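Field reference: sequence -> structure
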Amino acid sequence: MQSGQNRRRSRRVTVRWAATYLVDRDEGGWHDCQVLDVSASGALLEVLEAAPLLHSALSIDLRLEAKGSIEAVFNAQLRRVEPTEHTATRLGIEWTPLDPSEEHALALLLALHADQETGS
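Structure field:
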């Protein structure tokens, strides 16, 4: 397992993106979630339903509406589950190794988010 310092090697960006996730081998389909922060190595999600099992494989569908729309699906592994003070649960996920096109898509999503934040 990676040390906390290595996991945090990527700068995390606070976001509030609506997204959906799919648990590998779950016949329940896609579930809504909110992305609270994202980095090149993973993300923090918030869900309102029962959390998947720790270490579950997930697919995360990220979509950002800005100057058009961009959508990308990334594979990840659930690394941390934290209940919150209200009815939500926070899921810490780590991207499975991204290929160059996925890295580019993630960088583009983050750049579009930065443009939205600065009003560009």
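Note: The chain has two helices and six strands.
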